[in-house]
Amino acid sequence: MLLDLPERPRRNRRFAKLRDMVRETRLHASDFVWPLFFHDLAEDLPIESMPGISRLGEKSLLGACERALKIGIPAVALFPCLDASLKDVEGSGATDEENLLFRTLRKVKARFPELVVVTDVALDPFTSHGHDGLLSACESTVDNDRTVDALCRMAVLEARFGADVVAPSDMMDGRVGAIRRALDAAGFTDTGILSYAAKYASAFYGPFRDAVGSKIGRDAICKSMYQMDPANCREALREVRLDAAEGADMVMVKPAGPYLDVIRMVKNASDIPVAAYQVSGEYAMIHAAARQGWLDYERARDESLIAIKRAGADVILSYFAPEVAAR
Ligand code: PBG
């Protein structure tokens, strides 16, 4: 039988080169930001729940930055892992000019001035309780306005020590505007703000909290009083609208894979670049299934990333960045 079809979409799928030609979305090394964990020890320490990822010593961290540039990744995001003895309830280490983050930032920018360096603005690497901010008097939640004050001081120091883009990941209200004003007042009008605008209270951050040690005992701490409810989508637009109005240069959706609808909505609603963070748990899941022989590692990895880009992400933070960029 011969069907009388005016259109046969399969014609464009016949063989590899033809498929290459009509492909709508492509990953490029320049799409990525590579998140890097580092600590104050000389040797690297593998993170068990993130195969292939370690907390890096200084030498390896600088090596990773060099590698990023070599393989065309334009940016790194720096995540310090502090010794527990340096953390306190107030996260006071966050504004210590000699803390691990600032020392490292100065070295990275001195060695690689052309690399875009992104630093988180949040207190969680520095607080003994692991929250992103300062606890309220009753200790049942995080105090918004007092936290914003600390974040502004942290962001100004990050800018001073070389951060090109500061990335508030704390989800306090009004922090983008406050940080913008603090940066401007300190003369850092050119330092950008990548706001973690739609950051969900997600179970997929588990391995990251192992990595930075922001876990208290075995239990995951609950950040639902400030991070978004995974059930909400319109609320993401509200967060994005506010952050853009307060002066964000880019907005982020996080996690990425389980929130592709949110990425698309944000993309359609805003005129600033949209970033998406493929978080630690998304990375760990693909590795875990591949280790069991249940998924083809490379195909699952690439599909997860192309989906994020297809959904509308202009910038992708991913632990897969170096292996994908280097191909
Ligand atoms: C915290 C922060 C988190 C991540 C980046 N910054 C975790 C959290 O909110 O607890 C998660 C990244 C990942 O899971 O890869 N400021």
Order of helices and strands: HEEEHEHEHEHEHHEHEHHEH
Bound chemical compounds:
ligand PBG
Form type: globular
- Total DSSP helices: 11
CATH class: Alpha Beta
Overall pLDDT: 96
Strand residues, percent: 15-25%
Q: How many DSSP E strands? A: 10
Category by helix and strand content: alpha/beta
Helix percent band: 25-40%
CATH topology category name: TIM Barrel
The side-by-side strand order for the widest beta sheet comes to 1-4-5-6-7-8-9-10
Major beta sheet, specifics?
Answer: 8 strands, parallel, barrel
Give structural notes.
By secondary structure, the protein is α/β, with parallel strands linked by helices. It has one domain: Alpha-Beta Barrel (TIM Barrel). The chain has eleven helices and ten strands. The protein has helices at residues 16-22, 58-70, 100-111, 144-160, 175-185, 206-212, 234-245, 260-269, 280-291, 297-311, 321-325; strands spanning 32-38, 45-46, 54-56, 75-80, 116-121, 165-168, 192-199, 250-254, 274-278, 315-318. It has an eight-stranded parallel beta barrel, surrounded by eight helices. The protein is globular and about 75 Å long. The mean pLDDT is 96. The chain binds ligand PBG. The site of ligand PBG has 11 residues, from helix 6. Ligand PBG binds at residues 120, 122, 124, 132, 169, 205, 208-209, 223, 279-280.
